[in-house]
Amino acid sequence: MAWYVTKRLFYAVLILLGVTFITYFLMYLIPADPARQIAGRSATVEVVANIRHQLGLDLPFYQQYLRYLGNLLQGDLGRSYVQRSQVSDLMAARIGPTLQLMAAGIGVELVIGITLGIVAAIKRNSALDRMLMAFSFIGVSSPHFIAAMLALYFFAVKLGWFPLGGYGGIEHLLLPAITLGVLGSGWYSRMVRSSMIDVLHQDFIRTARAKGLTRVRVLLRHVLPNAIIPVIPMIGIDIGIFMSGLVVVESVFGWPGIGQLAWQAIQQVDIPIIVGVTTLSAVAIVVGNLIADIAVLFVDPRIDVKHS
Amino acid sequence: MSLPDNSRASRVLSVERLSIDISHEHETQRVVDDLSFQLHAGQTLCIAGESGSGKSLSSLAIMGLLPKVARLPSGAILYQDRDLTELSDRQMSRLRGRDIAMIFQEPMTSLNPLMSVGQQLEETIRRHKLDEGSGAKRRAWEILDAVRVPHVEKRLKQYPHELSGGMRQRVMIAMAMVCRPKVLIADEPTTALDVTIQAQILELMRELQQAFDTALLMITHDMGVVAEMADDVVVMNQGVVEEQASARELFLQPKSPYTRKLLAAVPRLGAAVTLPSRAQAARVLEVSDLRVRFPIRRQSPFAPATEVCAVEGVSFELGAGETLGLVGESGCGKSTTGKALMNMLTYSGSVKLDGRELSGLQGKALKAVRRDIQMIFQDPFSALNPRKTVGELIAEPLLVHGLANAAQRRQRVEELLLQVDLPAAAALRYPHQFSGGQRQRICIARALALEPRVIIADEPVSALDVSVQAQVLELMKSLQDRMGLSYLFISHDMAVVEQVCHRVAVMYCGQIVEIGSCQQVLHNPQHAYTQRLLSAVPMPDIDHKRDFKALLQVDEVPDPIKPRGHRLPDIHYAEPQAGHFVALSSA
């Protein structure tokens, strides 16, 4: 077990290294020039060149990247070009709200997804099943920015059930969390449905029925735990998809999180922030997957780390 | 029914004129028609029949566990003056597991993989309010002990995947018997198990049945098991009862032609004619000191390197036109030996085909050799690509080896199909349009396409019904006579081996423990393992009921996992008769 985790952590470091390299390289390639952006429209060529030199942007790519990596190892993510403060400080101030929204959003996703999946599997091939699957399909295929704005318009502006965005108590959290949850739940409901149907046909379910267990007990004690197993690693993978939704939803609802920070940085070509947020997302995805994989070990006794 | 009337007192359950319909879309198909039988306390009724006879559905009907597409248009199942077909699912669920319990065919998949053995046993105990808390634990312990599971304390905490098939089936029996049901239904309970394990499970069921005075309904296709277990027998075919009689009557004076045909098709150990010896024939295949080891990946770099010793020092020869049977129980290395001969896995040792060394061959040289050794597999349903026509499948080896053009291939396919007694028109159809036996013929035709010298047949008839099995074996024999083929016939079924093999090798734990002519090995076994194996084979003969009690003790099979590079001591053979070798010490 300890060896398994060590091995996985080693791979995680490699993945992160790859992610920073790719992000930094892409930022280097994009035609926008941060020095000009900072200097403003009226700046002279000398001023721009001066800024460029100050930021180290005139160095060859590998030197820029190595410098960045060296600083990263010391916990220094660089300074924001635009906001003129440490990227790590900016992110630290926003990580709390983001984690809050993430936890709530994934929670809603799982509750809706798993419930709908179970119902659809039990009533499979009925009108209800088809309706739920159509719903999940609409959910996963609607663009976040439109769905988020529609939700804001109907439930906050028209009906007045929720405040008009912003950060605060539970009432502020609910609408963005539900929006994210509903949109992302489709993956889970489809997965739980097919996995449940699979398990329902297994021999051990027949055994459980032959033991005289009630339908409810068979479903909760025998079908569900077995059907949930493939969903656990899915949560780890989903964190990545979820993050992209987060950027949009946070911006629409004015939620002061990492997503909103990224959104602003992208508009201003604030490279240190973009790279910082990307690295943080990568860390979140890697850690999420690691936790999911370790969690499966505890749920499923068949997975033997010794032989994996 | 031919049962005397005084048996009414002991009657526990009776099925009266039961019919079952299965509906697909708009069609309805009658799968069981007008079935009646009675179960008596302490007695065993066997429903025997080949696949598709409706025997399993009948048992599920008693449990109230029929699939949704099934309907019961008529008939009644009477238990304690109640008609089970009229009970609601809630009422049925109270009876299931408490009054009527069931054991299924597949012990490997019939237990919940996420719950420990103890949890699953206690679940039944709690459901039927037999006991609670520590009482439930104690009962689980007792019943597991009653089915002779060793180290009960440890087993209760283990998960199903940590147990062998035989152990899992014992757990299933324990779970079914814990409430001391009045009726126990066993649907092919030993079909997936090795013969010695089968003997243990059958003996165990007999014992528990006597101890608890349970009525046993046993569903099986194996007439050997029927003879061993049954008091009364119902023979079913295509949903219709062909014959219903006491076991003695059925075996000694079968009335229906179907029963007679079925009994005639069953291979009987000791009944086969001795095949002429091929000892003088030229050696086609010479295997010496074959070893196959599978390295196990290390858990951490500090753990010792280990490997599975699958085949250890196996040597034998195969003559032209000869069939060598390779028998043994699952995990003994017989299939691995077959695969090694096909060069499908790496091995050490020497394999010579017509004096040519095959070990270490690669690329073109290996491909050329493959023409001479072909293989037939156990499951004809998964051995044929469902998206290709039969013609394409049979012609594929010719295509791969670039041996014929399109017209020649078509002609060759036609010839091959006729050789295996299939119409030439079959070439245009797809595998799913054929029955199991026909598909196995297609597999044989494909193996014959390259005119091989040797065919390795890995359990070629195990998945087939007995009547079909007999036909396929007959075909294999006649092809051998016509073409001088040599077969390496891998099987777990002694009676089948006796029918088709000239010589037999018995494998145990990766080694050959005894090899010799059929006569020598099967009728005068010298090695303790061979004797044990043969004593476990159920005989389709009512006057030879076997006593499996001696087999009930569980033996520990030696662990095949050894440190890497470990060398097992060489096996030495004694030769009590010419050509009959017996290992002096087993693994």
From TrEMBL, chain A:
User: InterPro entries, alphabetically?
Assistant: BPD_transp_1_N, MetI-like, MetI-like_sf
Transmembrane residues, as ranges?
A: 9-30, 99-122, 134-155, 167-188, 227-253, 273-299
Domain ABC transmembrane type-1 positions: 95-296
Keywords assigned: Cell membrane, Membrane, Transmembrane, Transmembrane helix, Transport
Give the subcellular location.
Cell membrane
Query: Chief localization class?
Result: membrane
Q: Which SUPFAM superfamilies match?
A: MetI-like (SSF161098)
The protein's topology relative to the membrane is:
Multi-pass membrane protein
Q: Which GO terms describe its cellular component?
A: plasma membrane
Q: Name one GO biological process term.
A: transmembrane transport
Record family assignment: Belongs to the binding-protein-dependent transport system permease family. OppBC subfamily.
List the protein's name.
ABC transporter permease
UniProt source species: Salinicola corii
TrEMBL record, chain B:
**UniProt GO molecular function:** ATP binding; ATP hydrolysis activity
The UniProt similarity line reads:
Belongs to the ABC transporter superfamily.
CDD domains named among the record's database cross-references = ABC_NikE_OppD_transporters
Domain of life, source organism = Bacteria
Protein name in the entry: ABC-type dipeptide transporter
Q: Name one GO biological process term.
A: peptide transport
Q: Please give, as recorded in its UniProt entry, the membrane topology of this protein.
A: Peripheral membrane protein
Compartments in which it is found: Cell inner membrane
- UniProt organism field: Salinicola corii
Is tRNA-binding given among the entry's keywords? no
Q: Which GO terms describe its cellular component?
A: plasma membrane
Q: Which residues form the ABC transporter domain?
A: 10-263, 296-534
Q: Which reaction does it catalyse?
A: a dipeptide(out) + ATP + H2O = a dipeptide(in) + ADP + phosphate + H(+)
Q: Which UniProt keywords apply?
A: ATP-binding, Cell membrane, Membrane, Nucleotide-binding, Transport
The enzyme's E.C. designation = 7.4.2.9
